[in-house]
Amino acid sequence: MIQHMTPEHLWFLSTRLHRQGWRRAARAVKTINALLYNSALPPEATVADDVRLWHHGLGVVIHPDTSIGRGVQIAHHVTIGAGSSKTGTPYGVVVEDGVIIATGAVVAPKAGHRLVIGTGAKIGANAVVTKDVPAGATVVGGASRIIPRDELSIR
Q: Measuring CA to CA, which residue among 44, 85, 84, 35 is closest to residue 68?
């Protein structure tokens, strides 16, 4: 019996291959995942084996310097980014256990900094997260600003 291959299974396979030094094979599995599920799930990320991607992870983009804990749920069209560090200090995103990240959320730490989403936190749909989120907290909304039409004109 052939088991249905989910984007999570392919992601876990690519991370295991990467850890074992099979970098080209890991990249090939990542490419297959991207083609099948339209997602960018890097083999370099640290991912618990029970992470759940809603709607087959459609449009999910994860930065390689991301660590995702147990029982995390990530909806479609979520972006988790990270800026690179030239100083050697730890950076990236740490998503602790039991976090739920809803549709369209963006997690974007300041370049060169680490951002932690605490255990059991909930990130609402289309929320923009740029700072640490305490354990159990809920984040909603994005920082929106209305720009008047006359300010948009090209000079």
A: 44
- The count of structural domains within the chain is 1
**Taking the model in full, what pTM does it have?**
0.86
Q: Write the CB contacts of 127 (distance below 8 Å, at least 6 apart in sequence).
A: 102, 105, 106, 139, 140, 141, 142
* Burial of 33 per CB tally in 10 Å (0-12, 13-18, 19+): buried
Name all contacts of 140-148 with Cβ < 8 Å and 24+ positions apart: 142/106
Residue 153 lies in a domain: no
* Length of the chain as a residue count: 155
Q: Are 123 and 129 in contact, with CB atoms under 8 Å apart? A: yes
Q: What domain range is 18 assigned to?
A: 7-140
Token couple for 117: 């989403």
* 32 alpha-carbon distance from chain centroid: 18
Spatial distance between the Cα atoms of 26 and 19, rounded to a whole number of angstroms: 9
| 99-116 pLDDT tens trace | 999 999 999 998 888 999
Give the chain's mean pLDDT.
88
CATH number at residue 93: 2.160.10.10
CB atoms within 10 A of CB 71: 16
